[in-house]
């Protein structure tokens, strides 16, 4: 059985791909007197995938992302979703983030930090905290019709108190005819302590370091509603490699509807 501390990965990798691919950044509200731009995006999805791993045990998710950016490039934001981790009472995730965006020689940069929280979760006896924080650098560069994207993230103490966590990812979004956008991401997750060590009071992730790949296609359906189809793969194909037999690492097809405001 997977340990409590090993059953969680969190936040917005798939949703980030949906929003980047769908043109959601163009749907936003401004408060000119305050120099603020506000973007809100609710999403309904057949699953909640973070770095290739299901956060809802392959069940549907309802989510919302809010981003508030000042004209200086400073921003704050939040992400809320339902979650379901086997053997835990975690039912919701609330991520808080802040950072700074700028452009340098045509490259858009985003340096930020995110705190991943699970309100209402109680660590059982022998279990470890799910909450963690992470620092990330995102970059994008566009050569129309293709936008190249990259991500490097570091957590001093990753989820499950598993020690240093490092994640890198690269990919692209491409605008096609008839309003379609396609894209892909390839990422790799390293964790300091993959498995618990007998006799040592240390947290652990619960699986080997792994590769994940996602491909998606999206298009506006009607009234600003974006439909997205994604295919997700991980290198944790063997059931025994996935948190003690969990199905959350299985390759799968996902569907999502989003409506940026």
Produce a short descriptive summary.
This protein has 261 residues and is mainly beta.
> How are strands sequenced across the largest beta sheet?
2-5-6-7-8-9-10-11-12-13-14-15
Mean pLDDT score? 88
User: How much of the residues is beta strand, in percent?
Assistant: over 45%
Overall number of structural domains: 1
The CATH architecture classification is Beta Barrel
Label the structural class: mainly beta
- CATH names the topology as Porin
Oligomer: single chain
CATH level-4 homologous superfamily: monomeric porin ompg
* Inertia-based shape: globular
The succession of helices and strands, N to C, reads: HEEEEEEEEEEEEEEE
Q: Can you tell me the CATH class? A: Mainly Beta
Percent range for helical residues? under 10%
Q: Tell me the distance between the termini.
A: 42 Å
Strand elements, count: 15
Radius of gyration: 18 Å
The number of helical segments is 1
The low-pLDDT segments are: 1-25
Structure description:
This protein starts with 12 loop residues before the first helix and ends with a strand. The chain is mainly beta. It has a single domain (4-258), classed as Porin, CATH 2.40.160. Helices cover 4% and strands 51% of the residues. Keywords: Signal. It holds the Pfam family Gcw_chp.
């Amino acid at each position: 059985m997977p340990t409590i501390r090993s059953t969680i990965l969190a936040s917005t990798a798939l949703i980030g791909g949906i929003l980047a691919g769908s043109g959601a950044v163009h749907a936003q509200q401004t408060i000119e007197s305050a120099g603020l731009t506000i973007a809100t995006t609710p999403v309904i999805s057949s699953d909640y995938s973070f770095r290739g791993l299901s956060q809802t045990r392959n069940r549907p998710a309802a989510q919302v992302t809010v981003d508030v950016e000042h004209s200086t490039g400073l921003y704050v934001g939040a992400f809320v979703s339902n979650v379901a981790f086997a053997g835990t009472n975690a039912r919701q995730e609330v991520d808080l983030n802040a950072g700074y965006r700028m452009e340098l020689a045509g490259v858009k940069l985003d340096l930020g930090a995110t705190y991943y929280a699970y309100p209402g979760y109680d660590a059982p006896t022998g279990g470890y905290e799910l909450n963690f924080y992470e620092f990330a650098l995102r970059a994008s560069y566009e050569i129309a019709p293709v936008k190249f994207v990259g991500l490097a993230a570091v957590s001093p103490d990753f989820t499950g108190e598993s020690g240093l966590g490092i994640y890198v990812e690269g990919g692209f979004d491409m605008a096609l005819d008839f309003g379609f956008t396609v894209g892909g991401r390839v990422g790799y997750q390293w964790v300091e302590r993959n498995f618990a060590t007998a006799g040592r009071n240390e947290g652990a992730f619960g699986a080997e370091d792994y590769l994940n790949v996602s491909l998606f296609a999206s298009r506006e359906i009607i009234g600003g509603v974006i439909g997205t189809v994604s295919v997700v793969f991980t290198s944790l194909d063997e059931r025994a490699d996935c948190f003690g037999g969990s199905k959350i690492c299985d390759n799968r097809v996902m569907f999502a509807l989003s409506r940026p405001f």
